[in-house]
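Pipeline run #58 for the internal structure catalog. This entry was flagged by the ingest filter as a single-chain record with no existing model, so it goes straight to prediction. Upstream metadata was stripped on purpose; only the residue string is passed forward. Reviewer on rotation: M.T. Logging verbosity set to normal.
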Amino acid sequence: MKRAVLVLLVACHAGGGGGDDYPTGTGGGGPIAVGGGTGDGGAGNAGVQIEGRVCLLKDLRHPTVCSGTGAGGLLVSLATPTTKTAKVTTDDNGQFSIVAPLGAGFTWRVTGATDQRIVPSLMPFGTDHTIPVIGTEDYNTLLGANHQVIVDEGSVVVRVVSGGAPIPHVTVASTTLALEVAVKDAAFYDDDRSQDVWNQTDTQSGGVVWIPVVALSPSPPTTGTITLARQDGATVTTVTTAATVESQWITFLTMNVP
C-alpha cells in the first residue's frame, strides 16, 4: 500500500510517571471531579464549572490507564464549529477546571501549549470528562510498527465496552468516513501479545479499535459513522456512532455494545 512521508514530528517526548487506572465512563453517571486547573472560561460561559482530566497514555490498548505525571501545560477547550470556550491549562497530573457552555454538540479539544509532544485529541462532550491523549513519539512508534503513515489524515480510536468493561471479538463492520482503503485493511485491533504490533482480526482483552489513517473530505469537516459488530455465537450485534476527524488529530470515542 503506497503511503507518503510521515510528518508527525517529535518536539519532545511526553514523559510519564507511574500509571494509574483512571476510569473512563460510557456516558452514564456524572462529572468526574478531579481538582483544579488554570485559565478562564471565555465565550459561551453561561454553563457550569466542571472538573476533568487529560489522561496521558503510554499504551493505546489501555485508554483509561493514565500516566501519573507529564500531562501538565496542555491546553483544553470545548468547541462547536461556531462556538468555543477559551483554553484552560492542565496541571502536571492532567487535571483542569473549565466552564462548560450551555447547549449540545460540543467537542473536547486538547493540544500542546508550545510544542508537539502530544498528538492533539478530539472527544465528544458528555458526562465523562476524562480525555485521552498520547505522546507524539509513542504514536509514531505505533504507526511505524504497523506500517502506517499519516500526512494530512486523521485517526480514530474506539474503546468498545459492554456494561463498562472492554469486550473482545468486536470488528468494524462498516464506516462512512472517508477512508483511503477498505475497512478490513484500515482497521487495527488491540493485541494481547504486543503493545505496538496490533492485529487486523478483532478486538482482544483491551476492546480497542484503531483506524490510524482516515482521509479527509474535500470540504471539511470530515464526518461519518462507524458501525461495530460483535459476534456472540450465531448472534451478531451492531452499533453505530458518529465521528469527526481532523488532520493529524486523534478522535477518541467510547461505544457500548450490548
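catalog note: Confidence is low (pLDDT under 50) at residues 1-18, 21-45.
catalog note: The longest strand covers residues 222-232.
status: ready for reviewer M.T.
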